[in-house]
Amino acid sequence: MANVYDYAHDLEKGLRESDEYQGLKQAYHAVMNDESARRMFDDFRETQLDLQQKQMQGQQITEEEVEKAQKMVELVQQHPAISKLMEQEQRVNTLINDISQIITKPLEELYRE
User: Which InterPro entries match (predicted)?
Assistant: First the structure.
């Protein structure tokens, strides 16, 4: 019987070689190599992380912070390189969610019995 960790490493290799990941990698490098896009993307990510951290700590998020985040989302979605990056991130997330459903199927079946 094969070691399940060997399968996991094969899966990692497959993910790295997938069209979805390769597209994400290209889109990421396009943003990182464009100074204005990189700055805008970094600001966007920092704002997202700050809001997530506040939520996890149970802190109240102000209306002003929500408005700022919404404006930032609108702004980054208008930038072609960042928009492409976000689209590619979604494709990879979909792939990972699909894989997660596949690998948790034995547990779902067991608990449905």
Answer: Com_YlbF (IPR010368), YheA/YmcA-like_dom_sf (IPR023378)
